[in-house]
UniProtKB/TrEMBL annotation:
Presence of keyword Phosphoprotein: no
Protein name, as recorded: Laccase
An example molecular function term from Gene Ontology annotations: copper ion binding
PROSITE patterns (UniProt xref): MULTICOPPER_OXIDASE1
Superkingdom per UniProt: Eukaryota
Keywords of this entry: Copper, Disulfide bond, Glycoprotein, Metal-binding, Oxidoreductase, Signal
Coiled coil: none
InterPro entries, sorted: Cu-oxidase-like_N, Cu-oxidase_2nd, Cu-oxidase_fam, Cu_oxidase_CS, Cupredoxin
Family: Belongs to the multicopper oxidase family.
Length: 307
């Protein structure tokens, strides 16, 4: 499914920074009712916002992200799991407090009942013998409600734009997703732009009135009800007008936009009204600049552009 998105840049009001966390932070996963496109529904959210908070650090940093499961809505999955897409992990260690040690059985007997209700019989219980991050029920046990998991890893020689999301069934389609940026203090493109901060990260995502069941094993994927830019959009049949994302710019300044598709299904054709730009990074890899008027971006893909 291809969706066409065009962004309008407004100015000269300047840029308003969006709060970011990292490289050491708690990430609380909780349920909340939200209406990003005008329709109110329950979501699974990191820190109670959609998309989740931007996680940032610098090349060479040691990241310590403590994911705390505070989910309470029993009409949805109560367990969770987070995967970081694109970053190679070094010196990785994992600590699932009061729950898991690497090389031990995933679930304590007292917790198997909850897993049975959510995922089927206890034969799904596995033993973790390696630390390839982080597939629920494959190389990581889901994080049960009321428990936490510390992702502790180094990023010694990698920089770029990435994303994180739930890796438990289709849970990330209910809102548990966000952008992840590793800045390079010696960025080879630093001379080509003036602004590169949290305000220039652009997320694209699909949104559904209901998407809390396991993904279908066959047949077409469900069609999204709306498309969100930085967590805001409009449901076409909604009577009330909901706000749209606005990115303020100053005339004469050069901006690096980090475009991230955190969608579940569609791919997008992205453009900026009355502007061309230069593509300088794709999926975390720098490359020679390519002039463009639009760019097609698929699920999980990242494009960095200079305007």
């Amino acid at each position: 499914m291809l969706s066409v998105i065009s962004l309008l840049l407004l100015g000269p009001l300047g840029t308003a920074l969006v709060a970011a966390i990292g490289p050491v932070a708690d990430l609380r996963i909780r349920n909340a009712f939200i209406h990003p496109d005008g329709f109110n529904r329950s979501g699974v959210l990191a820190e109670g916002i959609l998309p989740g908070p931007l996680i940032t650090g610098k090349k060479g940093d040691n990241f310590q992200l403590n994911v705390i499961n505070e989910l309470t809505d029993n009409t949805m999955f109560l367990s969770t799991s987070i995967v970081r897409v694109g970053v190679a992990y070094y010196n990785f260690s994992a600590h699932l407090f009061s729950f898991l040690s690497i090389g031990t059985v995933c679930f304590k007997r007292a917790q198997i009942g909850q897993m049975d209700r959510e995922f089927g019989p206890s034969r799904s219980v596995v033993t973790v013998t390696d630390v390839e991050p982080f597939r629920a029920f494959v190389t990581q046990c889901p994080i049960a409600a009321g428990h936490s998991f510390l992702y502790d890893f180094n990023v010694p020689d990698q920089a770029g734009t990435f994303w994180y999301h739930s890796h438990l069934s289709s849970q990330y389609c209910d809102g548990l997703r966000g952008a992840f940026v590793v800045y390079d203090p010696e960025d080879p493109y630093a001379a080509l732009y003036d602004v590169d901060d949290a305000s220039t990260v652009i997320t694209l995502e699909d949104w559904y009135r209901k998407f809390d069941a396991p993904a279908p094993v066959s047949g077409p994927a469900p069609a999204p009800d709306s498309t969100l830019i930085n967590g805001l959009g409009r449901y076409p049949k909604q009577r009330t007008v909901s706000p749209l994302a606005v990115i303020n710019v100053i005339q004469g300044k050069r901006y690096r936009f980090r475009l991230v598709s955190i969608a579940c299904t569609p791919n997008y054709l992205f453009s900026i009204n009355s502007h061309s730009f230069t593509v300088i990074e794709v999926d975390g890899e720098n490359h020679k600049g390519v002039p463009a008027d639009s760019v097609q971006i698929f699920v999980g893909h990242i494009v960095r552009i200079r305007d």
